[in-house]
Amino acid sequence: MEDRYAFLTEWYDPTAALLRRYQLFYYPQDGSVEMFDVKNRRMFLRRTKYDDIHQEDLFVGNRVNVFSRQLNLIDYGDQYTANKLGSKKERTLALVKPDAVTRIGDIFELIYSSHLIVTKAKMTKLTWSQAADFYAEHQSKPFFNNLVQFVSSGPAVAMELMGDEATSIWRKLLGPADSAVARKEAPQSVRAQFGTDAVKNVCHGSESLAAAARELEFFFPSTIGHGPSNTAVYTDCTCCIIKPHAISEGLTGKILNSISAAGFEISALEMFNVDRANAEEFYEVYKGVVTEYPSMVTELCSGPCLVLEIHGTDVPKSFREFCGPSDPEIARHLRSNTLRALYGKDKVRNAVHCTDLPEDGGLEVQYFFKILDG
Ligand code: CDP
Ligand code: MG
Protein backbone atom coordinates (compact mmCIF):
# COMPACT_ATOMS: atom_id res chain seq x y z
CA MET A 1 0.00 0.00 0.00
CA GLU A 2 1.14 3.56 -0.66
CA ASP A 3 2.71 5.40 2.31
CA ARG A 4 0.41 7.98 3.89
CA TYR A 5 1.05 10.10 6.98
CA ALA A 6 -1.86 11.51 8.97
CA PHE A 7 -2.01 14.48 11.37
CA LEU A 8 -4.61 16.34 13.34
CA THR A 9 -4.11 20.05 12.71
CA GLU A 10 -5.59 23.34 13.83
CA TRP A 11 -5.96 26.47 11.79
CA TYR A 12 -7.19 29.81 13.08
CA ASP A 13 -9.75 31.18 10.65
CA PRO A 14 -9.54 34.96 11.05
CA THR A 15 -12.77 35.70 9.17
CA ALA A 16 -14.89 33.50 11.40
CA ALA A 17 -12.66 34.02 14.48
CA LEU A 18 -12.68 30.25 14.94
CA LEU A 19 -10.12 27.50 15.43
CA ARG A 20 -10.83 24.95 12.71
CA ARG A 21 -9.60 21.37 12.82
CA TYR A 22 -8.48 19.40 9.83
CA GLN A 23 -6.98 16.03 9.24
CA LEU A 24 -3.94 16.50 7.08
CA PHE A 25 -2.69 13.65 4.94
CA TYR A 26 0.70 13.64 3.28
CA TYR A 27 1.74 11.21 0.56
CA PRO A 28 5.55 11.09 0.45
CA GLN A 29 5.64 9.25 -2.87
CA ASP A 30 4.54 12.27 -4.91
CA GLY A 31 4.57 15.00 -2.21
CA SER A 32 0.84 15.51 -2.31
CA VAL A 33 -1.48 16.64 0.48
CA GLU A 34 -5.14 16.19 1.29
CA MET A 35 -7.27 17.84 3.98
CA PHE A 36 -10.45 16.75 5.68
CA ASP A 37 -12.66 19.08 7.73
CA VAL A 38 -13.16 17.29 11.04
CA LYS A 39 -16.27 19.10 12.32
CA ASN A 40 -18.19 19.28 9.07
CA ARG A 41 -17.05 15.80 8.11
CA ARG A 42 -16.23 16.62 4.53
CA MET A 43 -13.31 16.81 2.18
CA PHE A 44 -11.72 20.23 2.37
CA LEU A 45 -8.84 19.85 -0.06
CA ARG A 46 -8.65 17.07 -2.61
CA ARG A 47 -5.33 15.30 -2.97
CA THR A 48 -3.04 17.87 -4.61
CA LYS A 49 0.66 17.98 -5.25
CA TYR A 50 2.25 20.58 -2.98
CA ASP A 51 5.99 21.18 -3.14
CA ASP A 52 6.36 23.46 -0.14
CA ILE A 53 5.84 20.75 2.43
CA HIS A 54 8.69 18.43 3.40
CA GLN A 55 8.63 15.23 5.37
CA GLU A 56 11.17 16.53 7.89
CA ASP A 57 8.77 19.36 8.83
CA LEU A 58 6.02 16.93 9.71
CA PHE A 59 5.99 16.33 13.46
CA VAL A 60 3.74 17.29 16.33
CA GLY A 61 4.57 20.71 17.73
CA ASN A 62 5.63 22.13 14.37
CA ARG A 63 3.65 24.37 12.03
CA VAL A 64 3.41 24.00 8.29
CA ASN A 65 2.04 26.24 5.59
CA VAL A 66 -0.46 24.70 3.21
CA PHE A 67 -1.72 27.12 0.57
CA SER A 68 -1.15 30.14 2.86
CA ARG A 69 -2.82 28.51 5.84
CA GLN A 70 -0.56 28.04 8.85
CA LEU A 71 -1.52 24.66 10.27
CA ASN A 72 -0.47 23.70 13.79
CA LEU A 73 0.29 20.00 13.94
CA ILE A 74 -1.35 19.07 17.23
CA ASP A 75 -1.36 15.27 17.08
CA TYR A 76 -0.49 12.29 14.96
CA GLY A 77 -3.51 10.97 13.10
CA ASP A 78 -2.61 7.30 13.46
CA GLN A 79 -0.13 4.98 15.14
CA TYR A 80 1.75 4.39 11.88
CA THR A 81 2.55 8.10 11.53
CA ALA A 82 3.47 8.43 15.21
CA ASN A 83 5.88 5.48 14.97
CA LYS A 84 7.38 6.53 11.69
CA LEU A 85 7.75 10.28 12.18
CA GLY A 86 7.46 10.90 15.90
CA SER A 87 9.60 8.34 17.67
CA LYS A 88 13.01 9.93 17.13
CA LYS A 89 12.01 13.46 18.16
CA GLU A 90 14.01 14.84 21.05
CA ARG A 91 14.40 18.11 22.86
CA THR A 92 17.83 19.27 23.92
CA LEU A 93 19.52 22.30 25.43
CA ALA A 94 21.84 24.57 23.50
CA LEU A 95 23.54 27.36 25.40
CA VAL A 96 25.26 30.08 23.43
CA LYS A 97 28.10 31.12 25.71
CA PRO A 98 29.15 34.74 26.28
CA ASP A 99 31.92 34.63 23.65
CA ALA A 100 29.42 33.91 20.87
CA VAL A 101 26.27 35.89 21.61
CA THR A 102 27.20 38.35 18.84
CA ARG A 103 27.24 35.33 16.45
CA ILE A 104 23.70 34.32 17.36
CA GLY A 105 22.49 34.77 13.76
CA ASP A 106 25.10 32.39 12.38
CA ILE A 107 24.28 29.88 15.07
CA PHE A 108 20.56 29.97 14.19
CA GLU A 109 21.52 29.36 10.56
CA LEU A 110 23.57 26.29 11.46
CA ILE A 111 20.77 24.95 13.66
CA TYR A 112 18.21 25.27 10.85
CA SER A 113 20.54 23.77 8.29
CA SER A 114 20.67 20.65 10.48
CA HIS A 115 16.87 20.35 10.41
CA LEU A 116 16.49 21.22 14.07
CA ILE A 117 14.00 23.84 15.17
CA VAL A 118 14.28 26.32 18.02
CA THR A 119 11.26 25.94 20.29
CA LYS A 120 12.41 28.17 23.17
CA ALA A 121 15.05 30.87 23.48
CA LYS A 122 16.05 33.33 26.15
CA MET A 123 18.99 35.64 26.69
CA THR A 124 20.08 35.61 30.30
CA LYS A 125 23.10 36.55 32.38
CA LEU A 126 23.89 33.84 34.88
CA THR A 127 25.17 34.68 38.32
CA TRP A 128 28.30 32.92 39.52
CA SER A 129 26.27 30.51 41.64
CA GLN A 130 23.77 29.76 38.86
CA ALA A 131 26.65 28.92 36.53
CA ALA A 132 28.23 26.76 39.23
CA ASP A 133 24.92 24.89 39.65
CA PHE A 134 24.59 24.39 35.94
CA TYR A 135 28.09 22.93 35.70
CA ALA A 136 27.95 21.05 39.03
CA GLU A 137 29.18 17.83 37.36
CA HIS A 138 32.53 19.53 36.72
CA GLN A 139 32.99 20.74 40.33
CA SER A 140 36.11 18.69 40.91
CA LYS A 141 37.78 19.57 37.61
CA PRO A 142 40.81 21.91 37.58
CA PHE A 143 39.06 24.19 35.06
CA PHE A 144 35.85 24.56 37.10
CA ASN A 145 36.44 28.08 38.47
CA ASN A 146 37.61 29.34 35.14
CA LEU A 147 34.59 27.86 33.38
CA VAL A 148 32.06 29.24 35.86
CA GLN A 149 33.70 32.65 35.70
CA PHE A 150 33.54 32.63 31.89
CA VAL A 151 29.94 31.44 31.57
CA SER A 152 28.76 34.09 34.05
CA SER A 153 30.89 36.87 32.54
CA GLY A 154 28.22 38.21 30.17
CA PRO A 155 24.91 37.45 28.50
CA ALA A 156 24.32 33.94 27.16
CA VAL A 157 21.40 32.57 25.15
CA ALA A 158 19.67 29.37 26.21
CA MET A 159 17.66 27.52 23.59
CA GLU A 160 15.53 24.44 23.42
CA LEU A 161 16.16 22.60 20.16
CA MET A 162 13.84 19.98 18.79
CA GLY A 163 14.21 17.43 16.04
CA ASP A 164 15.23 13.88 15.17
CA GLU A 165 18.00 12.85 17.57
CA ALA A 166 18.45 16.50 18.51
CA THR A 167 20.92 15.76 21.32
CA SER A 168 23.49 13.91 19.23
CA ILE A 169 22.93 16.06 16.12
CA TRP A 170 23.64 19.22 18.12
CA ARG A 171 26.69 17.70 19.85
CA LYS A 172 28.04 16.63 16.48
CA LEU A 173 27.45 20.09 15.06
CA LEU A 174 29.37 21.59 18.02
CA GLY A 175 32.46 19.45 17.51
CA PRO A 176 35.21 18.67 20.07
CA ALA A 177 35.26 20.81 23.25
CA ASP A 178 38.66 22.34 22.49
CA SER A 179 38.27 24.76 19.57
CA ALA A 180 41.82 24.05 18.36
CA VAL A 181 41.12 20.32 18.25
CA ALA A 182 37.80 21.07 16.52
CA ARG A 183 39.62 22.99 13.79
CA LYS A 184 41.77 19.93 13.13
CA GLU A 185 39.18 17.18 13.49
CA ALA A 186 35.88 18.80 12.47
CA PRO A 187 36.58 21.98 10.49
CA GLN A 188 32.89 22.52 9.63
CA SER A 189 31.79 22.40 13.27
CA VAL A 190 30.52 25.36 15.29
CA ARG A 191 33.51 25.35 17.63
CA ALA A 192 35.98 25.11 14.74
CA GLN A 193 34.39 28.09 13.01
CA PHE A 194 33.69 30.42 15.92
CA GLY A 195 35.63 29.11 18.92
CA THR A 196 38.76 30.54 20.54
CA ASP A 197 40.23 27.83 22.76
CA ALA A 198 39.29 25.10 25.27
CA VAL A 199 37.26 27.46 27.47
CA LYS A 200 35.78 29.92 25.00
CA ASN A 201 34.16 27.34 22.79
CA VAL A 202 30.95 29.04 21.61
CA CYS A 203 28.17 26.77 22.82
CA HIS A 204 27.15 24.08 25.20
CA GLY A 205 25.11 21.00 24.27
CA SER A 206 23.52 18.41 26.53
CA GLU A 207 25.43 15.13 26.60
CA SER A 208 22.46 12.77 27.03
CA LEU A 209 18.68 12.77 27.14
CA ALA A 210 18.78 12.79 30.94
CA ALA A 211 21.16 15.76 30.94
CA ALA A 212 18.92 17.53 28.40
CA ALA A 213 15.89 17.09 30.65
CA ARG A 214 17.75 18.47 33.65
CA GLU A 215 19.33 21.37 31.75
CA LEU A 216 16.08 22.38 30.03
CA GLU A 217 14.40 22.43 33.44
CA PHE A 218 17.22 24.66 34.68
CA PHE A 219 16.63 27.35 32.02
CA PHE A 220 12.95 26.79 31.21
CA PRO A 221 11.45 25.48 34.45
CA SER A 222 7.98 24.00 34.47
CA THR A 223 7.14 26.17 37.52
CA ILE A 224 6.91 29.70 36.19
CA GLY A 225 9.04 32.46 37.60
CA HIS A 226 11.89 30.18 38.70
CA GLY A 227 14.32 30.29 35.78
CA PRO A 228 17.25 32.66 35.24
CA SER A 229 15.89 36.12 34.40
CA ASN A 230 16.04 37.94 31.08
CA THR A 231 18.47 40.78 30.34
CA ALA A 232 16.13 43.64 29.33
CA VAL A 233 17.23 47.09 30.52
CA TYR A 234 14.13 49.10 29.41
CA THR A 235 15.97 52.37 28.76
CA ASP A 236 17.37 53.81 25.51
CA CYS A 237 15.71 50.95 23.70
CA THR A 238 13.24 49.85 21.10
CA CYS A 239 11.27 46.68 20.58
CA CYS A 240 11.71 44.43 17.55
CA ILE A 241 9.59 41.34 16.96
CA ILE A 242 10.67 38.77 14.38
CA LYS A 243 7.24 37.66 13.27
CA PRO A 244 6.00 34.05 13.24
CA HIS A 245 5.90 33.77 9.43
CA ALA A 246 9.59 34.80 9.25
CA ILE A 247 10.49 32.21 11.88
CA SER A 248 8.63 29.41 10.10
CA GLU A 249 10.28 30.42 6.83
CA GLY A 250 13.68 29.92 8.49
CA LEU A 251 14.69 33.60 8.25
CA THR A 252 15.57 34.15 11.92
CA GLY A 253 19.32 33.71 11.51
CA LYS A 254 19.48 35.97 8.47
CA ILE A 255 17.46 38.71 10.17
CA LEU A 256 19.61 38.54 13.32
CA ASN A 257 22.74 38.69 11.17
CA SER A 258 21.45 41.76 9.33
CA ILE A 259 20.65 43.48 12.63
CA SER A 260 24.14 42.79 14.02
CA ALA A 261 25.87 43.72 10.76
CA ALA A 262 24.11 47.10 10.86
CA GLY A 263 25.72 47.68 14.25
CA PHE A 264 22.67 47.39 16.50
CA GLU A 265 23.09 45.93 19.97
CA ILE A 266 20.65 43.20 20.99
CA SER A 267 20.36 43.65 24.76
CA ALA A 268 17.56 41.11 25.33
CA LEU A 269 16.06 38.28 23.34
CA GLU A 270 13.29 35.81 24.06
CA MET A 271 10.91 33.56 22.15
CA PHE A 272 7.22 33.95 22.95
CA ASN A 273 4.06 32.13 21.97
CA VAL A 274 1.62 35.02 22.09
CA ASP A 275 -2.03 34.16 22.59
CA ARG A 276 -4.84 36.03 20.90
CA ALA A 277 -5.83 38.22 23.85
CA ASN A 278 -2.24 39.39 24.31
CA ALA A 279 -1.72 40.02 20.60
CA GLU A 280 -4.88 42.17 20.58
CA GLU A 281 -3.70 44.07 23.62
CA PHE A 282 -0.20 44.62 22.29
CA TYR A 283 -1.52 45.98 18.97
CA GLU A 284 -4.37 47.94 20.66
CA VAL A 285 -3.13 51.33 19.36
CA TYR A 286 -3.56 50.17 15.77
CA LYS A 287 -7.19 49.09 16.31
CA GLY A 288 -9.54 51.14 14.13
CA VAL A 289 -6.52 53.04 12.77
CA VAL A 290 -4.82 50.47 10.56
CA THR A 291 -7.03 48.32 8.31
CA GLU A 292 -4.67 45.37 8.73
CA TYR A 293 -5.19 45.25 12.52
CA PRO A 294 -7.15 41.94 12.58
CA SER A 295 -4.65 40.21 10.30
CA MET A 296 -1.72 41.61 12.30
CA VAL A 297 -3.22 40.04 15.43
CA THR A 298 -3.72 36.72 13.66
CA GLU A 299 -0.16 36.75 12.35
CA LEU A 300 1.37 37.53 15.76
CA CYS A 301 -0.36 34.58 17.43
CA SER A 302 0.06 32.12 14.56
CA GLY A 303 3.30 30.68 15.95
CA PRO A 304 6.36 31.52 18.03
CA CYS A 305 7.90 34.97 17.59
CA LEU A 306 11.30 36.23 18.70
CA VAL A 307 11.26 39.48 20.63
CA LEU A 308 14.39 41.64 20.85
CA GLU A 309 15.29 44.65 22.90
CA ILE A 310 17.59 46.82 20.77
CA HIS A 311 19.68 49.17 22.86
CA GLY A 312 21.41 52.46 22.03
CA THR A 313 21.10 56.23 21.81
CA ASP A 314 18.18 57.37 19.60
CA VAL A 315 17.69 53.75 18.64
CA PRO A 316 13.87 53.89 18.17
CA LYS A 317 14.39 56.25 15.24
CA SER A 318 17.44 54.63 13.67
CA PHE A 319 16.10 51.10 14.05
CA ARG A 320 12.77 52.10 12.52
CA GLU A 321 14.62 53.46 9.52
CA PHE A 322 16.54 50.21 9.29
CA CYS A 323 13.27 48.22 9.29
CA GLY A 324 12.00 50.33 6.39
CA PRO A 325 8.50 51.15 5.14
CA SER A 326 5.89 48.77 6.58
CA ASP A 327 4.86 47.55 3.14
CA PRO A 328 7.69 45.36 1.79
CA GLU A 329 6.75 46.13 -1.83
CA ILE A 330 7.26 49.83 -1.19
CA ALA A 331 10.37 49.08 0.84
CA ARG A 332 11.87 47.13 -2.06
CA HIS A 333 11.35 50.13 -4.33
CA LEU A 334 12.50 52.86 -1.99
CA ARG A 335 14.91 51.32 0.52
CA SER A 336 16.14 47.97 -0.74
CA ASN A 337 18.58 47.35 2.13
CA THR A 338 15.97 47.48 4.89
CA LEU A 339 14.79 44.41 6.82
CA ARG A 340 11.31 44.53 5.32
CA ALA A 341 12.61 44.93 1.78
CA LEU A 342 14.88 41.93 2.29
CA TYR A 343 12.65 39.58 4.27
CA GLY A 344 9.02 40.79 4.08
CA LYS A 345 6.25 39.26 1.99
CA ASP A 346 3.33 41.65 2.34
CA LYS A 347 1.99 44.36 4.66
CA VAL A 348 1.10 41.88 7.42
CA ARG A 349 3.87 39.35 6.90
CA ASN A 350 6.49 42.09 6.78
CA ALA A 351 9.16 40.13 8.72
CA VAL A 352 9.45 42.43 11.74
CA HIS A 353 7.49 44.71 14.00
CA CYS A 354 9.34 47.68 15.44
CA THR A 355 8.26 50.38 17.87
CA ASP A 356 6.70 53.43 16.16
CA LEU A 357 7.11 56.20 18.71
CA PRO A 358 10.37 56.72 20.59
CA GLU A 359 8.50 57.08 23.90
CA ASP A 360 6.91 53.63 23.43
CA GLY A 361 10.19 51.69 23.10
CA GLY A 362 10.53 50.90 26.79
CA LEU A 363 6.80 50.20 27.15
CA GLU A 364 6.70 47.67 24.32
CA VAL A 365 9.81 45.96 25.66
CA GLN A 366 8.17 45.83 29.10
CA TYR A 367 5.04 44.26 27.67
CA PHE A 368 7.04 41.20 26.69
CA PHE A 369 9.93 41.06 29.13
CA LYS A 370 8.03 42.11 32.28
CA ILE A 371 4.41 41.08 31.69
CA LEU A 372 4.55 38.04 29.39
CA ASP A 373 7.88 36.58 30.58
CA GLY A 374 6.78 34.02 33.16
O1 CDP B 1 31.08 21.25 26.56
P1 CDP B 1 31.46 19.81 26.39
O2 CDP B 1 30.45 18.87 26.96
O3 CDP B 1 31.79 19.49 24.96
O4 CDP B 1 32.83 19.59 27.17
P2 CDP B 1 33.11 19.14 28.71
O5 CDP B 1 34.31 18.27 28.68
O6 CDP B 1 31.87 18.62 29.34
O7 CDP B 1 33.52 20.51 29.41
C1 CDP B 1 32.57 21.49 29.73
C2 CDP B 1 33.13 22.84 29.41
O8 CDP B 1 34.22 23.15 30.25
C3 CDP B 1 33.68 23.00 27.99
O9 CDP B 1 32.70 23.24 27.03
C4 CDP B 1 34.65 24.16 28.17
O10 CDP B 1 33.95 25.43 28.05
C5 CDP B 1 35.14 24.01 29.59
N1 CDP B 1 36.51 23.41 29.64
C6 CDP B 1 37.56 24.21 30.03
O11 CDP B 1 37.33 25.38 30.36
N2 CDP B 1 38.83 23.69 30.05
C7 CDP B 1 39.08 22.43 29.75
N3 CDP B 1 40.31 21.95 29.79
C8 CDP B 1 38.01 21.60 29.36
C9 CDP B 1 36.72 22.13 29.32
MG1 MG C 1 29.84 18.43 28.86
From TrEMBL:
Q: Which GO terms describe its cellular component?
A: axonemal microtubule; centrosome; lamellipodium; nucleus; ruffle; spindle
Active-site residues from the entry: H204 (pros-phosphohistidine intermediate)
The answer to whether UniProt assigns keyword ATP-binding to this entry is yes
Q: Which InterPro entries has this protein been placed in?
A: DM10_dom (IPR006602), DM10_NDK7 (IPR057579), NDK-like_dom (IPR034907), NDK-like_dom_sf (IPR036850), NDPK7 (IPR011410), NDPk7B (IPR037993), Nucleoside_diP_kinase (IPR001564)
As for subcellular location, the record says: Cell projection, Lamellipodium; Cell projection, Ruffle; Cytoplasm, Cytoskeleton, Flagellum axoneme; Cytoplasm, Cytoskeleton, Microtubule organizing center, Centrosome
Keyword annotations for this protein, in alphabetical order, are: ATP-binding, Cell cycle, Cell projection, Cilium, Cytoplasm, Cytoskeleton, Flagellum, Hydrolase, Kinase, Metal-binding, Nucleotide-binding, Nucleus, Transferase
Q: Which GO terms describe its biological process?
A: CTP biosynthetic process; GTP biosynthetic process; UTP biosynthetic process
Q: Which residues form the DM10 domain?
A: 1-89
* One Pfam match: NDK
Task: Give the similarity note.
Answer: Belongs to the NDK family.
| Subunit structure as annotated in this protein's UniProt entry | Component of sperm flagellar doublet microtubules. Component of the gamma-tubulin ring complex.
Q: List the PANTHER family.
A: NUCLEOSIDE DIPHOSPHATE KINASE 7
Q: What is this protein called?
A: Nucleoside diphosphate kinase homolog 7
Q: Which organism is it from?
A: Fundulus heteroclitus
Q: What is the lineage of its organism?
A: Eukaryota, Metazoa, Chordata, Craniata, Vertebrata
